[in-house]
Amino acid sequence: MNNWPRSVSPPYVVNIEDLRRKAERRLPRAVFDYVDGGAEAEKTMRENTRAFETLTFRPRNAVAVPQCDLRVNILGAELSFPAILAPVGYSRMIHPAGECAASSAAGKAGTAYILSTIAGYKLEDVRAASSGPIWYQLYMIGGRPAAEAALERAMAAGYSALFVTIDTGMIGNRERDTRNGIGQLMGGNWMGMIPYLSQFFSRPGWVASYLMDGGLHKLPNVIVPGKGPMSLMDVSDALSDSAVTWRDFQWLREVWPGPIVAKGVLTGDDARRAIDAGAAGVVVSNHGGRQLDGVSATLRALPEIVKAVNGQIEVLMDGGVRRGADIVKAICMGARAVLVGRAYAYGLAAAGETGAARAIEILRTDMERTMKLLGCSCIGELDRTYVDVPRDWPGAS
């Protein structure tokens, strides 16, 4: 797609930060901060992006690179470039088209989309919206019976891989959400909402589209036996009661025939545990800095995990990716591909599917430009020789 609407075309939008600013102007404060914020002091969230700034390139100049091959095979799927749309919980609150718009944008761009358990649309509808690979991300909310029912539906619909999030034994302390009254706003108690409603008065466009979409929907992919679909306000308590353990992977291998990926690995020890548990891959992830604040930036943690895995399973990474150059750096450090979350969520908030597609195109164009300037024509050629790694990074030597 080359003829972008004026609202997301240059010079109005030239990078992901431009989409972020548009998202901030469109969304109420509580919703924007849900997308934009992290846990506690947000140190880890900031470090995720700063780590990419710390790593510098070593280009090979006087090299002609007329074309770049960005294609990569991940979990048996051929992708047009190594950026996968990460699971973003309840994207329907960000934009009425939500997960369906994001999956459609991913498919048209030739890459994969991962659907969150905490989605606003039925997983069958999200699968139908995309022409590309669709994978499912699992939280154990609702217990094993609810999870098994969702996985059966996902298999029948054509989801080909399962991502199991292992870093959410409870919800992190997201202070922006507390200040904005996100719990009260989702709770359905109008008296509790009153102190926080003023932030919506300046965003009438969002409010109108939200109300036309029917307001806050229950979770159509978490069907609790005897109770029906889970409400969004119950998710926090449900997560605390349903932490995933390595023992759960044995059960998951019995009920899910495809590849299983452990999402939330930050140490070599956990990477080896994932291999022992039968995982086909890991995602080096700190949940975008939204869970335990003060852990390592994922790019810094990546070398330790790559070394521990030693080529036995696939290593993906998320956290802090805002430019195509960031994707290149992650691959140089050993990642097979990256997951992007906030980058496309800003686009989705700004302009629905068009905004998400624009975010994907920005990252892809940036990545191709970076590789040409590095003197590298193929993803498979990227390695540590193209970057200078700070000496104080663990496992970097």
Walk me through this protein's architecture.
This protein has helices spanning 16-26, 29-36, 43-54, 98-109, 123-128, 143-157, 175-180, 182-187, 190-193, 198-201, 204-212, 235-240, 247-255, 268-276, 298-309, 324-332, 342-374; strands spanning 56-57, 72-74, 77-79, 83-85, 113-115, 134-138, 162-165, 219-224, 228-230, 260-265, 281-284, 314-318, 337-340, 387-388. Helix content is 43%, strand content 13%. The protein has a single domain (6-388), classed as Aldolase class I (TIM Barrel, Alpha-Beta Barrel), CATH 3.20.20.70. The protein is α/β, with parallel strands linked by helices and 397 residues long. The longest helix is centred in the C-terminal third of the chain and has 33 residues, at 342-374. The mean pLDDT is 94. Strand 10 (260-265), helix 14 and strand 11 form a beta-alpha-beta unit. It has 17 helices and 14 strands. The strands form 4 sheets. Strands 4-13-12-11-10-7-6-5 form an 8-stranded parallel beta sheet.
